[in-house]
Design goal:
- This protein has about 325 residues and is an alpha/beta fold.
- About 30% of the residues lie in helices and about 25% in strands.
- The protein contains 8 helices and 14 strands.
- The protein has a 6-stranded mixed beta sheet, sandwiched between helices. Strands 1-2-3-5-4 form a 5-stranded mixed β-barrel.
- The model is unreliable at about 305-315 (pLDDT under 50).
């Protein structure tokens, strides 16, 4: 007679992936350290999974279908998924503090992230931090630089982690969604995260202890629940993402304000670089499109040395 006990399959949420160890949140809100069966495939932060209890924790036996995945390249340039089932990319940008200008490299980085969100068909926010350090004149310049994003329909939030300006609005925009915060070092992403998640350090310590990995767990993507609802995925490597190989036609559609002009160029396969009678170039020269946004598009197509600073996205 077979007396083997069959363990019940349960559902859970992957909070963090640390090598062969996964931290799973159960449906009851408890945390358990798991390993994954090879048949489950790659398991990443944000995945909904099926798991079974084991003698030393749990075993992930299956992964539910994903909706949107953000990935980053490994040392060989192969895209590795980082977090799954995103609803929103929140881009933290920084104006030049001395004059309120948006540098070409920062604009290209912002534009690449926004294009990534469009290709994933998820929402995007643009957060401009440290505005308390801008003079009145510099702030006016910054507002002019941000106008093309507002005109394109993006939500732009001006914040200051020091004074708290804009933090309530940001929290409201993050509530009820799963967002990943991205931004260059120095933009203040960590400060904003600390305000949004006041117990973040305590939670990291608790989750790290459960994984048995100590402070090293802070180097992996980790999902946090916001006090007002919604989730933030915090990943130290997000700023190093790259936008992989994308066809110009696909990328052009990811610049949402370009869409009314696509198909009006002389050449059907126009890449909008230096081709004659390009509808985008004409619109930019006449002030109907932002010339800077067009330059960002061209920089991504040409791969002009900023490859290491652009995000990779794909869907399963």
């Amino acid at each position: 007679m077979n007396t083997r006990h069959r363990t019940t399959v349960q559902e859970g949420l992957v909070i963090a992936n640390h090598g062969h160890q996964l931290l799973i949140e159960t449906r009851e809100g408890h945390y358990i350290s798991c390993v994954a069966r090879k048949s489950a495939g790659g398991v990443i932060c944000g995945d909904r999974v099926q798991w079974q209890a084991s003698a030393d924790g749990g075993v992930v036996v299956g992964v539910q279908a994903r909706s949107a995945v953000l990935a980053r390249p490994d040392q060989r340039g192969v895209a590795k998924p980082v977090c799954a089932n995103l609803d929103q990319i929140a881009v933290v940008g920084l104006m030049q503090l001395e004059n309120g200008e948006l540098s070409a490299s920062e604009r290209a980085r912002i534009d690449a992230y926004l294009a990534a969100a469009e290709m994933l068909d998820i929402n995007a926010l643009l957060i401009v931090n440290k505005i308390d350090l801008l003079s009145a004149e510099a702030l006016a310049v910054a507002q002019r630089n941000l106008a093309p994003y507002r005109d394109a329909g993006y939500t732009v939030i001006l914040t200051s982690a020091r004074s708290g300006t804009g933090v309530a609005e940001l929290g409201a925009r993050l509530a009820g969604r799963r967002s990943v915060l991205v931004g260059e070092s120095g933009a203040g992403k960590s400060s904003l995260t600390q305000i949004l998640l006041p117990d973040r350090d305590i939670r990291i310590g608790e989750l790290s202890t459960r994984l048995g990995r100590g402070k090293h767990t802070t180097t992996v993507a980790m999902l946090f629940h916001l006090p007002g609802g919604g989730d933030i995925v915090d990943s130290p490597g997000v700023r190093d993402f790259r936008l992989g190989t994308v066809e110009p036609a696909t990328l052009a559609r990811a610049f949402r304000e370009f869409r009314p002009y696509l198909g009006d160029c002389r050449y059907r396969d126009c890449r909008h670089l230096d081709e004659p009678d390009c509808a985008l170039a004409l619109a930019a020269s006449e002030g109907r499109l932002s010339p800077e946004r067009l330059e960002s598009y061209r920089a991504i197509v040409l791969g002009d040395g900023r490859k290491s600073r652009r995000p990779v996205t794909y869907t399963d």
